């Protein structure tokens, strides 16, 4: 029985290792002691028992000379749950001899955990996630769920089962937690992402780093003895633990690495649907992320995340556990185990916002993801026509794509139109049967008509060099400002009007997205350049890029 | 007026006014306030600094938006305008004054590449 001068409590027990203190009469009635470390267990009947782990005698009993104060027994009902988080250094007066518990203590400890109620904190002290290891089993952590997977089932030769996994974070670190079979039933619906829980008595094992980017040597599995209890007081548990990699650094990482990134969403494409090999339809959306390294990277979102994503206002997007791939050089994909946060309430986000508003927005940024086939992403690979030749673009195995600003200096109006198959998806040149019918070899059909299509040969130039390019239907129509059908009509009926269109189109400047490839015809190799896309010059973007390039040159 | 047309007119902003006193300049800025007399107005440059423009004759119509003023810088740092013109912003592309300011800085940081001289003919 101990007293603090005001109340007495007889539910104190010495932990086994301190038994000697009672045996050797160090702890004697009426001595004043400082309780340095203890564990408070709560019994099912509501009573509390304090197990003393470390105690120091401040004043021996002889010097104290009797009872101090007039303490009255303390009734347990008055205790508040947060009591045990108060300073663990409590001074007590020993009133009656402490029972020496040898095995008693051990039994006690065994009994108490099984009588563990569903009240927060009952059982053991809250420990930091960083201290969890397989060699201790009696711990409780208080952490926030940052990510919860869906239930996945498997069925193999050994049987079948189900599992779910989640990631939890507290002030000290993070850890991956998995629950199988019965634990799925017990805990899956109880756990909500973003909420804080007390978790105790999970089993720890070495983490399988292949499946997770969570920074912890261990990972936890919930078992039959594990408990998960919601925690109300959660304000000081952090929302997320991220170890952000600068986008510029992604080039140095291995493909398939799992990384955390944060950046400004500079642009976002429309959501598209594609069909997987298993004939499932899945939504997909690509966005472009830029950070203070000045580099951009494409991030692909899938499913509901892709559909719901709103990139307006160039938000800050943070992704934890994104998968790095070497598609297009370097690109990121948000997998089912990634967590995406938009405008998260973390310091890195504010830093990025400030940087972007001040200088980042004017930066062109260099994308690590080379988009193929001109999907409208003009943010990369700007070249002058002289660069294209000096860098031998197109000489490799694969075609090269580049963007440039150039002026049309010549348009070949002879043979720019051909008669094509009128079928919807067929553009093959038809053969004039001379009897009013036109034959398409590909469709193996004859038609009474045809549709005009453009193949325009042009020479474009900039201050340094020029380039012969071929423009097909869409880009040719954009350059000439007329559609193929109208042009065909004009050619047959009004030649001067036809010529005037070409005169008018000459000496216009555009942004060209071109594809170059070395082609070999009969021992002769030539670079063929095709215009994939033509756009009017955005002078603001162009100016910004020029200023940036000038500054870069000036800094050298 | 004729005199100013033959002379190079470096583009400047407010922070450069003091360096170009008694010299012909070209100043681009957004009209802030027009003096009731119509003979004076203030302009704001890409760095959000203000300068005063004085005219020979009072304005005949309301002036607003981005203007390009050609004139001499007075001892006080005001611009004595010889001529001005308004940059139309209603054709879809707004004039980015901050970007213009960045370009200005480039011109002045690299005078060896952007010389302000009358090109010698012949």
Automatic annotation (TrEMBL), chain A:
Q: Where is the Replication protein A OB domain?
A: 247-343
Residue stretches spanning the membrane: none
Residues covered by the Replication factor A C-terminal domain: 401-546
All copies of the Replication factor-A protein 1 N-terminal domain together span 1-59
Q: Please provide the record's keywords in A-Z order.
A: DNA replication, DNA-binding, Metal-binding, Nucleus, Zinc, Zinc-finger
From the Swiss-Prot or TrEMBL record, state where the protein is found: Nucleus, PML body
Q: Which GO terms label this protein's molecular function in UniProt?
A: DNA binding; zinc ion binding
The coiled-coil segments of this chain are none
SUPFAM superfamilies membership? Nucleic acid-binding proteins
Question: Where is this protein primarily located?
Answer: nucleus
Q: Tell me, what does this protein do in biology? A: As part of the heterotrimeric replication protein A complex (RPA/RP-A), binds and stabilizes single-stranded DNA intermediates, that form during DNA replication or upon DNA stress. It prevents their reannealing and in parallel, recruits and activates different proteins and complexes involved in DNA metabolism. Thereby, it plays an essential role both in DNA replication and the cellular response to DNA damage.
Give the quaternary structure: Component of the heterotrimeric canonical replication protein A complex (RPA).
Q: What is this protein called?
A: Replication protein A subunit
TrEMBL record, chain B:
Q: What's in the keyword line of the UniProt record?
A: Nucleus
Q: InterPro entries, alphabetically?
A: NA-bd_OB-fold, Rfa2
**Gene3D superfamilies listed in its UniProt record:** Nucleic acid-binding proteins
- Membrane-crossing ranges are none
**Which Pfam families does this one have?**
Rep_fac-A_3
Where is it localised? Nucleus
Q: Extract the GO molecular function terms from the UniProt entry.
A: damaged DNA binding; single-stranded DNA binding
Q: Does the keyword Nucleus apply?
A: yes
Recorded GO CC terms: DNA replication factor A complex; site of double-strand break
User: Quick one: signal sequence residues?
Assistant: none
Mind listing the GO biological process terms from this record? Answer: base-excision repair; DNA replication; double-strand break repair via homologous recombination; mismatch repair; nucleotide-excision repair
The record's comment on protein family reads: Belongs to the replication factor A protein 3 family.
What protein does this entry describe? Replication protein A3
